[in-house]
Structures
1.
Amino acid sequence: MTALDIVKEYYTHFNNKNWKGMLDLLHEEIRHEPNQGDPRIGIEKFTEFMQMMDTSYEETLTDMVFFSETGNTRVAVEFTVNGIYKKGEEGFPEAQGQTYVLPAAAFLEVKEGKISRVTTYYNLPLWISLVS
């Protein structure tokens, strides 16, 4: 499988809420670089992040456009996040089931047939205004 195939499968699992399928595509030492905060290193930290996200948000990604480079290691994807804010997080507005539509992008790296890095970007002030 190419890096592009692996990343497309990863996001298919995301939209199907197949968390195990997503985790199976990750390298043991996955580096997750979130929009804000410190990077998370390792499958255990990424699993904790996914559990928190599943508790607090209901999200589906649409309008996905994938870009890959010729070295078969890096993939970028632009998408729209369609979400419901289910449970509030410290420092953010109170959750009351607010819906939001937010443009975002991610950059992924594949090593040894597994995703070894996920870096995600979105406009946090815009998201806060959408759920406030």
2.
Amino acid sequence: MLKSSFALFTNDVETTSIWFNALRDETGLKVLKEGMPVLLDIYQTYNIKTTFFFTGYIARHFPDVVKMVIKDGHEVASHGKSHLKENGFDVMPFERQKRHLAETKKLLEDISGQEVVSFRAPALRVNEYTAPALIETGYKIDSSVASQRFDFFLSFGGIRKLKWLTAPRLPYYTAQDSLFKKGEGPLIEVPLSALFLPYVGTTMRIFPGITKIVRQGIHLESSRLNGKPIVFDIHPNEFIDESDEPRIISRRSNNPISYLLQDFFRSQLKVKNLGGNAILLYKKQIEFFAKRDYQFTTLKAYCKQNDFI
């Protein structure tokens, strides 16, 4: 190997119900009572430290969901104010982004007692104002870019996400006005792992066979070529099961094509292997890198160890 290889297994914590394709307080409670304990138990078993990105909404309504990660030494990070479509960072103007970032940072710091320096945008939706808004509100690390990933327009903000295809693969300091480009700014971008298809919990559950191929590719890149850190993204709501409730798919778009691709078709795919099956699949991902002596750490610790911050 060129040098130590790193595996950053990160977590986005929100009230999104995969089963209902909607935000629900009932799901937030299940995340607190069921999903988070499963995740934390997995990380204790493998002695892993990770980064948890919390929305301000779930932190405010269920503060224990933040407090429970502290004792195990995990990093608390921001996932924006909420996962509401109108709170996407690709549609908010500069001042509103700054307000959301500052409010969520303070809330998470008050609950956790930790300095919050890392951010990931809800649904990875960002625009030209996001980098300067992060810098002005005191964030040092972003992980909202998935270099060389293509979503086939199945997610919101698909047009802007085409910029992922040309974004640098290795961690980089961003331009002052763009998270997708290298620059002289103080903000470090740690891209999520992808080889055209994303290396995330959703893909792991829907296409476990293809995920093995993606995983092997990014492992070879990290261990043999350039030392790029593995950055995986999963959600505690992937480990809960709400299928005992009648399913009604919420419609988030009035555009019939967007509804068909982003709501109906995507929601049918995303429920595969939820709950117990997701636990088994996730453990296999961790064991793959553990057997190859990867260092499991948080975004903040990785950036400090590699002199980015």
3.
Amino acid sequence: MIEVVAAIIFIEDKILCLKRGYSKYDYVSFKYEFPGGKVKDNESYVDALIREIQEELSIDIIIQKKFKTITHSYSDFIVKLHSYVCKTKDFNGELYEHTDYKLLKINDLKSLNWLEADLPLIDDIITEYGD
């Protein structure tokens, strides 16, 4: 099982959605995701999230609360995804590991092709934060 963290980043009333690039597994290539990544040994989830967001986006986030933990089985691996609701003011659009981004209103999140592990999060975000 791979422990990962993800940031649901609000910028005003929209959420930052990032598109992955190529992966050795087709079923995760070029799909949208919430930014984050793997937790290193002896690293807290919060520290991992702050580090990953710095590496992927070079921005500072304010972590507002733990949102949900999802365990998802892909055909080649299992992820345990720890998500956090965050906010930032200063995203400038620079991408270091992703190929595209969208800033979407909550009720438009389902318009993108998401990673399977993120889909339950989207349903819960719409329930909790949607119109």
